[in-house]
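Notes from the pairing session

We agreed to fold both candidates in a single pass and log them together. This is the raw record for the first candidate, unedited. Please don't reformat it; downstream parsing expects exactly this layout.

Candidate A
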Amino acid sequence: MEGLIFDIRRFSVHDGPGIRTTVFMKGCPLTCQWCHNPESRLGEPEVTVKRQVLEGRNISKPETTGYWIKPSDLIHEISRDRIYFEESGGGVTFSGGEPLFQPDFLSAVLEMCKQKGIETAVDTSGYADLELFHRIAPLTDLFLYDLKILDHEDHLHFTGVSNECIKQNLKYLIHSGKNVLLRFPVVPGISNTRKNIEELKAFILNELLYKGKTGHISLKDHRIFSEGTMIKPIRLSLLPYHSMAREKYHRFHMTNPLKGLPDLQTRDMDSLKQELESMGLSVTIGG
């Protein structure tokens, strides 16, 4: 068995706690309009032409994005960084693309990591069969789980897929007591709308924070409920939109739907951070 990856990034500090080695897996069922790794979408290697100017000359050369690797070989690469994991509380993060797009390979590598005592994180869109989460949850120490758009039709329009299984899978992980960091990409005019933010807050209150409650829970109700009714505090990371992938779209001959959209800065997140913190959530910016 082999898996398809397109990058291994060492000494990352943005994909979970401590110093991380992030493995980027190729293939994704979503087509998010703000995607910053568009080269990850296709589930096969891609040959493109890389152009650069060197000493006044234009140089073009073919370059392949994506290569096949055996689980044992990948574990060998990951294990080279164990000393940094152990000293920083870090580990390996599987990102993409969508890691669950290659479930057998992912499961095999997670099992090997567990056997070697390497902490694991899976960065996921949540778009997969629930059975796959049942399968990898015991092998995963942390889920970095994207929660993008709550309205079904809006999610379908901006990502190309339904969000029903994404919501259900997230509820399973939270209600099962798994270690989950929610990540909310803040994209102007798409996810960063008053409608979507209100629906995000309502979903967290009514579907994640409380287990076994029936009926709608208002923010006022939330403030007076005893702590014993809460599963555990929800952690949420706000990810401000950036346009760093614009050159990738050009290189891979893909249309960038958000061309020209300005980047958001950390300071642009302050008001939203305070609003979500008022619900009792633990909110950070970036990461």
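Candidate B (folded immediately after A)
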Amino acid sequence: MTLRQKINALEKLGAVLLQAGQKKGKLAEFAASSSIYNGWFTEENVLHVFTEWGKSLVPEQLSRWLEPYSAESYSLEPESPVTIGLIMAGNIPLAGFHDLLCVLLSGHNALVKASGDDEKLPRLICEILISIEPGFKKQIQFTEGRLAKIDAIIATGSSNSSRYFDFYFGKYPHIIRKNRNSAAVLSGSESRQQMQLLGKDVFQYFGLGCRSISKLFVPEGYDFDLFFGGIFDYKNIINHNKYANNYEYNKTVYLMQGINLIENGFLLLKEDIGLSSPVAVLFYEYYSNATELNQRLQMDSGNIQCLVSGMDNVSRKVEFGSAQSPELWDYADGVDTLKFLQNLRKQPVF
């Protein structure tokens, strides 16, 4: 297939995903029953994933993403592809789909090991893509066993699993990702609308994504009523059984330890210097001035996936409400996956 054929197929897949987001077609039927396979995968969240991908796989976005690579001396249409092992995460629906797209567009072959928490959806999406463009069938293979006969690997998991990946796959060219978290930096002058949008960044996917806000940096003396007032629309999240169980469990553990909490009935706020908060908990940390804040953010820069803020002095920030809507060129951990794959072709690994 030519790159143009692949792009055309992805545009058609994008249209299918947009329709699914509107509760139309086979994918929408899967979304309605997805919680059977994973209790965290609600219909609302799966439909949200479909809509976000549908908005990304359009001509304007794909052209902007791929133009820098196509302009380079080495084309995205190789003569001798290699096999890339893909170990996908399953914390949110289709967590590894961007990596798969990069492999397909770079002309390599993907040997995919899907997460047990999200095994059915990647296969279903690939079936639809192959029905649109049968040429992709040669590029995609799923496996439930060990990854064998690979030339490079892209693996996403926890900090613990990343050590396992390093041990077994460190000899290959690789991208190995571990835990990252996202944070919001507040000034105290945000509008109610901004706080409502921040609620989406906090509660989308129940806070399980690496781009989910798990930490607030707030100025000394911050009035948390401003935050709680903005996120009140998300109060019904406590009606989700798994989320509610986490809320009650974490509240009990913290209170038994004598830890002071701020709560509103569906979210626990705990003062903590950590970044990775449990489900239904949001850590917060005070700062006294801009210099101290920037030093603090720099200390954790290697563990932060994205920052949400409206403050001018915060770098690498995204707008309120957009943490879970990354662009195609917003690579996880800041590592350019397509560039990595291009370099494999320039210097074959076999």
